[in-house]
Amino acid sequence: MAGRAITITSGKGGVGKTTVTANLAVALALLGQRVAAIDTDIGLRNLDIIMGMESRIIYDIVDVVEGQCHLLQALIRDKRLPNLHLLPAAQTSDKTAITREDMIAICQELKADNDFILIDSPAGIELGFQNALAGADEVIIVTTPEVSAVRSADRIIGLIEMNGKGPGRLIINRIKPAMVKRGDMLDTYDVIEFLAIELLGVIPEDEAVIVAANKGIPLAFEQSTLASQAFHNIARRVLGETVPFMPILEERGGLLNRLRSLFRF
Amino acid sequence: MNIFSRLFGRSKTSKAIAKERLRLVLIHDRSGIPPELLNVIKNEIITVISKHVRVDREGIQIRLSHAQGLTKLEADIPIVSYRQSPTRSTKQSTRKTEASR
User: The pTM is what?
Assistant: First the structure.
């Protein structure tokens, strides 16, 4: 059976697209899925860093498109998970180096040997985003609970629908329960009310994400924190399971829920 | 920021302000209609309606709203009276219309 290509995008930069892509890739791979992650942020590659594969790049996506190598030669296999691969972006080329047709062809080829193709989109709504969207069967939109990020997400949802790839599903990243509690942060319900698309997951702000990025070991390799648990829940929802949302969604009762989540592991 | 002023409704939470601002921005973003165009539309509507009825110019509100995938242009136009009988109130005028039919 052919794999599913999922593009992870946001419009606004810095909301956590690459972190979500890396962790969803790891979580899906840990669940036994064959996963290929593609970094389409040409000129500003980062997925390799987050996944800890930056020292192993020989060829990149532009080399594949230009015929310098075969697709399989450019794929980097994860040392921990043999069913997880990365196709890195080029660091020195520009966005015009690949076309939509190139992306469609690469996704098509990867689908033969993988259950999931995760496409990490660059920020913005220009060519890079259009390319990232071209090969997608589904789209995940990442936002944070901030006015600017939600506005960008709304715009991107409109563009995704115009491209016939909509409506997509939403991940709300970096929720801070304490700020929500004192009325200084939009909560999950507020964001959903504005964007009116299906919620795929909510990820709490977690310092462990930065520690994981420092080490090049995505958080999802362990299930020791709330954020890591959130990534695993998202992976299972992508696989079609019904997984209840974490207590982080509930505005009140933060302490009780935090205790509960401590005992869960 | 002060919890007491919030409790007594003296200041809004920053979340409430965020929601208000976001709501307006999204309505205009989604429709592609900039706020300045609404003012042009408002003046033209006043011109047309004023030919037939006397309206309360100050009370007129033209705004965009969005619900269930549809963007709507909403106009609240308080009518002061009919042109033909400027002394009567709106309510009386309405009754008169129904009676004459």
Answer: 0.81
